[in-house]
């Protein structure tokens, strides 16, 4: 870990604590808008229900969010960064191949969360307007807010993010004050800290309905996975310290809602004299409700912004790790790590609109929310187990811990699985689509790599040098550049040599081979130059972190500039008239675009994967755009991909008899 990463995670500042409020806690911080409402539902308010629900919330936030994520999982940082793909990049060193499965599933489920969080958070906040007029059409208002939220993504969040932290500070302070005012009226509510009340509620009904309350309780910890993903923005220590404040304010508000509900024991939410029976708004004084609605809506927008930005980061990591097709990535500001992916932005937008139009109200969206998130948490737990093994954590510490979370998360899964037909299938369907794309892309790349023939570059040095001096062949370019996936400096794909020597011989003064190596750490920009033949054949290896942009055009120019300064290469044109005037020679990139050859003999699995791969590829970024190359200096050549080509068809020659003349 570099010094900067150590500083990031060991130091804490007032500014860092405030930033963490605006970036980290949006999702989990807006959960009071709907958790208690989901727990009570249309049931009669009873002491056992309220105290049991609050006890479940307290211990869920303590065991699941605080212990698992804030204390334990935040230690699993990859050079300062967190998130399921960062964790996978760490445990990948164990060489256990099937760990790709929980990584892909977990990443897909986190993307599904990015589609459900904006609708449920914004809807729950805006529905506070129904207090004043039950006929207000909230759906158009929610859609407009969501639309504006996605429109501003292209400009970056640098300007508006300055207001995130102060707004979230006001939000959490408001949660705490509202809670304290209600707890003061009924201090008896603090008994809910006793885990007995949680146990009593979960086992109170022989039919299992008490246990199913966990499905609603789980909504209080839905932002924990995002908390881990955003670790690199604020630092571990800032998150841990700020969480003390955040958790305190959340619990005060939950207990305040519980105290209010106990004062109305025997009633139902619909009988509390409000057109929007949400305990969150019912605990407010009538004069404060308009202010509360505005602050809640702003907090919901910030929570949505955090999930959208997190989705961009997640997709960018997936692209770099070859889990996702290449799409255009824009860096709207100079803030490191801030990016914008237009196609994903609008995919998320239409997904959010679909959720809003399908479920209409936040209470209906609650059913779709928990199932995908608990499955994602279980994937993180799986990878975390192998992280412990890799770090040689003592068995007496690791086994009980993993067993504890297996029990907790299995219980949450069992409670949430009952919501499948009530809406849980929607987010799982979204996640399944994501999983399918990632699986197809991963296996297609793996199949392609296994059938790529690699040759020894040393065997071709002599012919390349002779080609470079062969004046009988028209010069193709002064500098000819090929991208290569070959990992070693003395290796090259056979198709590259085929392109240079046989698919119209390409004479050049200098041949360049560029390899991009994606590292398991997030941020690094290094390169190595290997001179294969003096002043004529070079190979450049770029070692880039999986969060670094692949700007080959700019990076290659920087390398050339440094080499010229060091006298390692002469880039001036070899044409006599241009050379006299020190004119730089032309540079030409040649990229190969693969297509599936009709000569391939595929298995059923390979046929499904490869046909799906090439179909998806038509919708994605071109190779030159993916490498950020200047289109004017790029030539793309079609190259057939032949899988399982038959070596011998078995033709039989027929000899004709000689005819007498």
User: Any idea what the shape is?
Assistant: elongated
Q: How much helix, percentage-wise, in residues? A: 55-70%
The secondary structure category is alpha/beta
Distance between the termini: 88 Å
Largest sheet: 6 strands, mixed
> Are there runs of 5+ residues with pLDDT below 50, and where?
none
Rg over CA atoms? 30 Å
Instruction: Give the strand content.
Output: 5-15%
- CATH architecture annotation name of the largest domain: Up-down Bundle
CATH fold label of the largest domain: Amino acid/polyamine transporter I
Full CATH superfamily name of the largest domain: Amino acid/polyamine transporter I
Question: How would you portray this structure in words?
Answer:
- The protein is α/β, with parallel strands linked by helices and 661 residues long.
- It folds into two domains: 3-445, Amino acid/polyamine transporter I (Up-down Bundle), CATH 1.20.1740.10; 454-641, no CATH class.
- Helix content is 55%, strand content 9%.
- It is built from 26 helices and eight strands.
- The chain has helices at residues 3-10, 14-23, 26-29, 35-40, 47-72, 84-91, 100-126, 138-151, 161-183, 195-202, 214-217, 224-229, 231-234, 236-262, 279-282, 289-320, 342-359, 362-390, 395-417, 420-450, 461-469, 494-501, 552-565, 576-580, 604-617, 623-626; strands spanning 454-456, 475-483, 491-493, 507-518, 525-533, 537-544, 587-596, 634-641.
- Strands 5-6-4-2-7-8 form a six-stranded mixed beta sheet. It has a two-stranded antiparallel ribbon with strand order 1-3.
- Helix 5 packs across helix 10.
